Amino acid sequence: MTFHILSVCTGNVCRSPIAERLIAEAMRSEDVAVESAGIGALVGSGVPEPALRLAEDHGVTVTQHTARQVDMDMLRRADLVLGMAREHRRHLAEMMPAVTRRAFTLREFARLTDASEVHLPNAVAEAGATTATAAMKAAVALAASLRGTIAPPADVSEFDVVDPYRQSDDVYRRSMSEIVPAADRVAHYLISAARSASHSAQ
Questions:
Q1: Of 7, 54, 63, 150, which is least surrounded by CB within 10 A?
Q2: Half-sphere exposure at residue 19, Cβ-oriented, CA atoms within 13 angstroms
Q3: What are the structural domains, with CATH classification, of the chain?
Q4: Within 10 A of 40 (CB to CB), how many other CB atoms are there?
Q5: Which residues contact 59 (CB under 8 A, 6 or more apart)?
Q6: What is the pLDDT of residues 3-35, one digit of tens each?
Q7: What is the pTM for the complete model shown?
Q8: Of the candidates 80, 113, 1, 96, the residue with the CA atom closest to the CA atom of residue 39
């Protein structure tokens, strides 16, 4: 069974498609489906040139991306939802309250993994997870259980990725500098969970 990740921003032209491709590329060895959408999508639009260049500098291509609006079906199938900012997480929770336990901002989830990873093998074992997908679901549940127990950053805007749309190249670079390490951290955490399942099954 495939593990589904949904990356969400506003227009689905800058932040969420790049996070989508970074995570998908990092997790290409796993049975994972990564998609993206926007809460106010510029439906049918592509990724702006500055974001295209920065994505390519980091080894991913988003030239074929076209923006689309988030819908209930996407939320239902997502095992992990990653908003690019707190406003996206709030909007999605209002759309589907049941998604709250598996919805985070990208940077929030990355921050939670730092506290979660030490507990990950036990969480996977206690969940009885013998498949990679089950283990990754257990990893998401573990992170959710620690939300509220970890001290927030001094500035809660650090949970957000800055929106670079129609901004300067410097803002695009700043946005990318926030997305890349968080996406890498998320991928590493989920891969660790998947490998924990394979070890426990032996």
A1: 63
A2: 37
A3: 3-200 (3.40.50.2300)
A4: 14
A5: 25
A6: 999 999 999 999 999 999 999 999 999 999 999
A7: 0.95
A8: 96
